[in-house]
Specification:
Strand content: 15-25%
Structural class: alpha/beta
Low-confidence stretches: 4-14
Mean pLDDT: 89
Order of helices and strands: EHHHEEEEEEHEHEHEHHEH
Distance between the termini: 37 Å
Number of strands: 11
Oligomer: single chain
């Protein structure tokens, strides 16, 4: 059973530009523009992405004058938690309020051997999948790199999942974290916000930052076929396909994007997905809807449809 918790976590610095979400090059340039030496950028990067410290004042090896300068000009604030729902099994759902007042959801699902974080990529969605509540909402806008990465950082905050002082985190430690896996499976179609999703996941996978291995990240798409090769080449994470039907006739209704990119094209893109026959996996998601796509004949057709795919 989910229990409500109302949390007041608004930040007074929401209007300041954020250091969260900057690429490493942009981050270094920003600190150089302040007249600080390069090693200060490395120290600050470590505090923000590796230790997850949410307040410049707590970055103890930085000069007080530099900390004050940062606080005057930048923020490292997370999204505001409007509501947190906590289940008996440890599942958590956060309704997050962004700086402009829009809201998105982030969900954490614990299991025996992993903890999976479902991350949103858009406010609303352009797709109208019949079984998806987000599909009933209009698309408001894409999330920024800062807002995507901020969901991961907020989850680590709430779960006390940052490395403690003196502890060195690495990709080999993924299974010991509370957040060990990420799926781009929240609100929105991530391949329609490709650049920001790509850049955010690069920060999440950075070995000197959030250090999550790409083998533990999955991107879920409804089937934006032209972007699937770029996903494999430029991001390199596991792929999940929101399939839900074995014929174009049924999928046209359940996932209307199928009218633009039918099953034949979608499955061809999956066969050619870079690295799929080696380390990368493709997952096919299938919601069974009574008397629509749940017959034994559908099951047999599904086996045949996917039999030659990795």
């Amino acid at each position: 059973m989910l229990a409500h918790k109302k949390l007041d976590s608004a930040t007074s610095s929401a209007r300041l530009p954020s250091l969260v979400g900057l690429s490493l090059d942009s981050f270094n340039q920003t600190i150089a523009d302040l007249g600080e030496p390069a090693f200060r950028a490395r120290q600050l990067w470590h505090w923000i992405y590796y230790r997850g410290v949410p307040d410049f004042a707590d970055m103890t090896n930085l000069a007080k004058s530099f900390r004050a300068l940062l606080a005057d000009h930048f923020t490292i604030a997370r999204p505001q938690i409007a509501t947190e729902l906590v289940s008996n099994d440890g599942t958590r759902k956060w309704l997050l309020r962004l700086a402009d007042g829009n809201e998105v959801e982030t969900v954490y699902i614990p299991d025996d051997d992993r903890g999976t974080l479902c991350v949103s990529s858009q406010v609303g969605c352009t797709l109208t999948c019949k079984f998806c509540h987000t599909g009933t909402q209009r698309l408001v806008r894409n999330l920024t790199v800062e807002e995507i990465v901020g969901q991961v950082m907020l989850a680590r905050d709430r779960l006390a999942d940052w490395p403690s002082a003196g502890q060195k985190a690495s990709h080999s430690d993924d299974e010991f974290r509370q957040v060990s896996n990420i799926v781009m499976m929240g609100m929105g179609e991530p391949l329609y916000n490709f650049d920001n999703v790509r850049d955010a996941l690069h920060l999440v996978m950075n070995p000197e930052g959030l250090t999550l291995s790409k083998r533990r990240i999955t991107l879920s798409t409804s089937g934006v076929v032209p972007m699937i090769p770029r996903c494999g080449e430029e991001i390199g994470v596991n792929l999940a396909i929101s399939l839900h039907a074995v014929t174009d006739e049924v999928r046209d209704i359940l996932v209307p994007l199928n009218k633009k990119y039918p099953l034949k094209e979608l499955l061809a893109a999956c066969r050619d997905y870079p690295g799929a026959h080696n380390a990368r996996r493709i997952t096919f998601e299938y919601v069974m809807l009574k008397d629509i796509n749940d017959s034994p004949a559908d099951a047999r057709a599904l086996v045949g449809l996917l039999k030659d795919l990795p």
